[in-house]
Amino acid sequence: METVTYVPDGTDCTVTLYQQDPEKYRGNIACDVCGEKSWFVKGFSTEKFDRAPCFAAHHASECDKKITLIPDDDGDSTSGDPATILVDLDKQRKQTIDVAAPAPKPGKESRWGTTRMYSSIGDYPENKSLRQILTSLSRNPDYPEDDATVKMVADNGRIVIQGTLADYLVSQERIPDAPIGEARVFWGRINNVNKNNGALWLNCGDYKTEPSILIEDEDLENDLMEDFRLKDIDDLQGADFIVVGVAFKAQNGKPYIKFGFTKYIAFRKYTLESRG
Ligand SMILES: [Zn+2]
Fold it and tell me: 119 with 182, same domain?
């Protein structure tokens, strides 16, 4: 898409207008046909092709502006919904035993005290469990429709969450009503990202009013980039998320979520179908 609607006043927003004032438009733009929330996609050039900057959206199925967003779901099929979902948040990061691996960057110590190598996040069973819940929710927002239970354990057996999964799941629309400071499993869709005074905000929409995930810790941000193999934090625009975290409210009432480690979060990213 090259033009979207600026939601507050219904005017057109072009790529040029957006680039002149991203703070104004970020989180406040929508497809001018189906009204789905939109986000800005930077242009880039490779040896093979140039991609002009544009807007993307998860368009409604009948929208004629629809271009395909491909979810990164390869190999993510589940063998039925388990009645009990066990998420071990205390699992060590996977460590390489490959002696031929290149030497780690000097001074790069993980929060676990051991230098680590990175592999696919899918190799971490705890994220995989979260991913499975997220994939189920993406297909059916009312999941689970039974009384599936969940147990999430951290720090040498400390129970973070235990009980009926449905009681702990909080969709992004309900985040403003979530109890402050209590662990819940939040899920929704990231519309846009921005950095402000060193803090990273993953925003569900308008960053002034709609929920965000706040990442203030630079180590956590670096882990996020590496563990989810993000070339650019913008790769999370349009992604579905699920996060075991705690809700807070800013003074103006805006809800936001904080979480501790990358294994507490999972994403279902989408890539734009490359055209031409
Ligand atoms: Zn549309």
Answer: yes
